[in-house]
Fold this sequence. Notes:
This is DnaA N-terminal domain-containing protein. The protein has helices spanning 74-79, 101-124, 136-143, 148-160, 196-201, 204-217, 232-240, 271-285, 290-296, 316-325, 327-336, and strands at 8-12, 15-19, 33-53, 56-72, 131-132, 164-171, 180-187, 244-247, 253-255, 301-305, 308-313, 343-348. By secondary structure, the chain is α+β, with helices and mostly antiparallel strands.
Amino acid sequence: MTCSIPFVVTKWRGLPVTESPGNINLKGQPYPLVYYRAIKDNVTIEKSRWKNKDGEMQQFYYHDPVMKKIIFNEEKVKGFSLDGLGQNLEFEDRHFTLIHNYLIRFWQHFLKADGLALFITLKSYCIDKDYCWPSLSTLQLECGFGSINTLKKKLTLLENLGFVFRFNCMSKEDRKINMEESPIFKVRKRVPFLPKELYEELPEELRTKHDSFMKNYMAAYDPENLAHKIDFDSIYEDFLGQGESLAKNSKRASKGIPKLQQMNIKETMTKNDEEITIFILDYIKSHISKPSFETWFQHCLFKLRENILTVYCQSDFSASWINDRHKDLIDSALTEKHIKPFDIKICSVKE
Length: 351
């Protein structure tokens, strides 16, 4: 007989955070956690650093981006899975760590030896579940990485290829409130086939071995039937859009783009602006997934003034996300329409 476990919704800084009964978090500890992903906001903080230059200590100033936290409740974290994406081999390990030869023979070419070692290490912590929480220092030690930065670069590689997804964690326990803990790593348990695009990047010798493996694995095999590469950036974007945004407060924060007062942008748009907006949105809609378009671009407006294109978004977070990940797409749309502005400015305005 099975039964469903109820969840309790509480508040953290005004945001809903789902807890399991008895405040047992995903790490099995008796206190609640906040699960989040950190995203760059469209805000910077001025910082300074002292450096020795020609025997004299001098102070240098620079700007660091403010990070915004996207908060997820426990159900969202548990429900997120990478195993339903792409074509998978019919294989799943339980209670021990098995590494399929397909992963070693073909995926290792893209993961590299240290990326594969990191994936295997994470997988070894996922005995009866698809997530784990070893500390970064533990992973660095076990994998023999020279630095935490090297480890983070390998984690980013695994994320880009759809093998791992990280959720940062903060404690909500009274005695260590907001203290950072080791991340929760969602780890793919099933081995995906190479997408067609990566298969074509294999050296000829490995492609031949891959074809031989696949012909033994399935009765009718044709490389043309391999699935296309999955856009994991778009999938992660869509998932991040389901979280709650929390910006880091800072009295010294300064906008990279001057803050716009509330105004009716539509009333100041010319017919040319309207045509540019329709063209760019149609172009973008044909190049990204529907959920991504609806999350980030659906309500954007575009104005061309003095050879500068200004993109108006509904929030600072949307503006920051588009600036970091989709500015090139806007530029491509302008090229398609034979428009070459001197600059593209992306900002937000409250309607």
